[in-house]
Amino acid sequence: MASGVKPRVKVPKTASAGETITIKTLISHKMESGQRKDGDGNPIPRSIINRFTCDFNGENVIDVVLEPAISTNPFFEFEAVVPESGEFKFTWYDDDGSVYEEAKSVEVS
Amino acid sequence: MTIKAATRATTAIALATGLAFAATADESADLVVNGEIEMVTRTAAPEHTENLDEIISGWVFRSDETQQLQMDDFDNPGMIFVDQGMDQWNEVAGSAEKSCASCHENVEDSMAGVRAVYPKWNEEAGEVRTLAMQINDCRENQMGAEKYGYTSGQMANMEALISVQSRGLPVNVAIDGPVQATWEAGKELYYTRTGQLELSCANCHEDNYGNMIRADHLSQGQINGFPVYRLKNAKLNTAHARFKGCVRDTRAETYKPGSAEFVALELYVASRGNGLSVEAPSVRN
């Protein structure tokens, strides 16, 4: 498992119904491309986050495939319409099989 | 030379050639972090910085996009390392089985204002100490733990964590009394030309700030934002690592990070920024 991996998300705590909100996410990850070689000339195996998804109350908001050219600590900023109170669920998939999850609730007033 | 003049010059070129010039900084922008911490990025130079009228944070010299990264903690990639520093703060290490928190408890309270006055005189040790030296002294003598490498990632993390507690406070490094001799030595170094290119710190950062050195927009070389997250290497960089890079770029054999020379230089350069806000971890290119 890659070390020092920590997901973070920033979601407004409240919104009005139908409002478009901005969501920011960042996961600390070294995103080793697989193209580099170590001191002895051996390739360093690829180790990246290869997929990121966001769901709201079970409905998919965004589903992203990440490629090796994406640099360290990938950051995503996107918008979502909030029809009702609920929970955003964020999931990152690591090459090594690890899955990192984070959830944030939004209150619609 | 003012940035104003340089910016006008580049604008003229951009108009003449029809090219947008991405390296041009917005010189009138204000730095407010998280919409609440107001930073002083320009102020009158302290009396001992006799060749400058105004001191200017390196933030002013960066592009709009880079500037914005520092205005929100979620956008600032340096904050990742502050988080890691927090983990280190609470991590028990060494023969004394203590963590930083065992003695200093809550970092928000115990380290508030600390970064703003370093490097400073340590009476017991009878020497000028940088923050890094103090951290390693704690690790070695209080915790019985292994020292961090002077410019290592862990050291940068810890410096960043401690610096964040002083964000927005003015740098206020003492230059008189017991530190005066060290300060004078640092000043001597600042104005000494080194390397095959025969450049002193002052040649770039005092005589030519605001000008372009090939693709780089020269700043005043202030260190109020250190440790700094650099986009070029995607990590935190310490002041001594930056000094080393600069001296190397003059094509000289550099002093070692943590050496007496660099400690003196850090004290002198820090004092040139007296009055600017502590920005660490800042974002630069």
Distance between the termini of chain B: 22 Å
What percent of residues of chain B are in strands? Answer: 5-15%
Helix content of chain B: 25-40%
Counting DSSP H or I runs of 4 or more residues, the number of helices of chain B is 11
Structure in words:
By secondary structure, chain A is mainly β. Chain A has no helices and eight strands. In chain A, strands 2-8-7-4-5 form a five-stranded mixed beta sheet, with no helix packed on it. A three-stranded antiparallel beta sheet of chain A has the order 1-3-6, with no helix packed on it. Chain A is elongated and about 60 Å long. Chain B is α+β, with helices and mostly antiparallel strands. Chain B has a three-stranded mixed beta sheet. In chain B, β1 (32-33) and β2 (37-38) form a beta hairpin. In chain B, α3 (78-89) crosses α7. Chain B is globular. Chain B starts with a helix and ends with a strand. Residues 4-22 of chain B have low confidence and may be disordered. The chains are: A mainly beta (109), B alpha+beta (285). The interface between A and B is small, with 11 and 7 residues.
Q: Topology, please?
A:
The complex is a heterodimer of chains A (109) and B (285).
Chain A: E1 6-10, E2 14-15, E3 19-28, E4 49-56, E5 59-65, E6 75-82, E7 86-94, E8 99-108
Parallel strand pairs in A: 2-8
Antiparallel strand pairs in A: 1-3, 3-6, 4-5, 4-7, 7-8
Chain B: H1 3-17, E1 32-33, E2 37-38, E3 42-44, E4 54-56, H2 64-69, H3 78-89, H4 100-104, H5 107-110, E5 120-122, E6 127-129, H6 131-142, H7 153-164, H8 180-190, H9 201-205, E7 212-213, E8 216-217, E9 228-230, E10 235-237, H10 239-249, H11 260-272, E11 282-284
Parallel strand pairs in B: 9-11
Antiparallel strand pairs in B: 1-2, 3-4, 5-6, 7-8, 9-10
Helix pairs in contact in B: 3-7, 8-11
